[in-house]
Amino acid sequence: MSIIIMGTNESKKVNTISGKSFEEVRNQLLRRTIRLKERVSQRYEELYNQSMLDHVKKLLDDLKKKESEDIRLIRKAMETGTMKMGANDSTGIDYGMLDHILSSDLDDPNPNDLGSVLLSAIKMSNDLQKVLSIMSEEYKGPSSSNVFRKLAEHETENKNRLSEIYDEMINKDYW
Amino acid sequence: MFSEIDLPQLKNIIREGRTFILDVKAEWCHPCRLIEKYLIPLSSEYPEMDFYSIDYEKDTSVFDFLEIGTVPYIILFNRGKIERRVRGYVREDTFRTIMKETYP
């Protein structure tokens, strides 16, 4: 897309509706994904500390490790540039438009209410999975697409594990 | 009877002053599915009452309209008025007690 700056004859090439380059928008979104993953990881830690059940603690520990693994993967990809886009990598989506998917519309969870924290983590995992799936479809470069696809698969696994924890809590009469 | 409705339908049902149970849910919400598992069979035990579910993600103004901020959320209506609100997951036995207390 190109825009004409009023009052001049200058024509400036921009990639997105906001005027930011794809790479800038994508990196912003990835940084936000990292922040969200860090928050999710923190919630797992809180749950871990609250839980008195060994098998639930183990599940939460696994989830926390998966989040750390994902964060490492994103950081590495950003540093090494393996997700750098070639000119024909993207179909031209404005990644700024995906921001709303990552914004939780639920009330903040009560840290002392396990159900509330778990629900919030399921929602976050679901939202991240949606964004990462869209990104894996949009990035045509094989290394980029694989990174996002792998991250999206992790989120699906996380969501399933969280649902398992919820079931465990119900079966153990937690609430 | 248990059926899924949208916001305009809900508003009509309230206007008609009906007595019913409303289950606010979302597709991603695991506890919502757990609630629905017992709510559907329970609805046949109360044939005189209607059971509805509404997916807030299909129309997020559902939250504002009902003044809620999370799912699962069950609202018990009596003649078009909110009689009781149940926030978050509740077990089937707990919900049965709530039903008996609300509609003695």
Textual characterization of the structure:
- The complex is a heterodimer of chains A (175) and B (104).
- Chain A has one domain (21-171): Ferritin.
- Mean pLDDT of chain A is 72; it is low at 1-14 and 85-92.
- In chain A, 66% of the residues lie in helices and 3% in strands.
- The longest helix of chain A has 30 residues, at 142-171.
- Chain A contains five helices and two strands; from the N terminus they run ββααααα.
- A two-stranded antiparallel ribbon of chain A has the order 1-2.
- Chain B has 104 residues and is of the alpha/beta class.
- Chain B has helices spanning 7-15, 30-45, 61-66, 92-102, and strands at 2-4, 20-25, 50-55, 73-78, 81-87.
- Chain B has a five-stranded mixed beta sheet, with helices on one face.
- In chain B, helix 2 (30-45) links the parallel strand 2 (20-25) and strand 3.
- The longest helix of chain B is centred in the middle third of the chain and has 16 residues, at 30-45.
- Chain B is globular.
- Chains A and B meet through helix 4 and helix 5 of A and helix 2 of B.
CATH architecture label of chain B: 3-Layer(aba) Sandwich
Count every helix of chain A, treating DSSP H or I runs of 4 or more residues as helices: 5
Number of structural domains of chain A: 1
Strand arrangement, major sheet of chain A: 1-2
Mean residue pLDDT of chain B = 95
Question: How would you sum up this structure in a few lines?
Answer:
The complex is a heterodimer of chains A (175) and B (104). Chain A has helices at 22-50, 54-80, 99-102, 114-138, 142-171; strands spanning 2-4, 11-13.
Task: Fill in the keyword field for this structure.
heterodimer, A: 175 residues, mainly alpha, Ferritin, two-stranded antiparallel ribbon, 5 helices, 66% helix, 3% strand, B: 104 residues, alpha/beta, Glutaredoxin, five-stranded mixed sheet, 4 helices, 40% helix
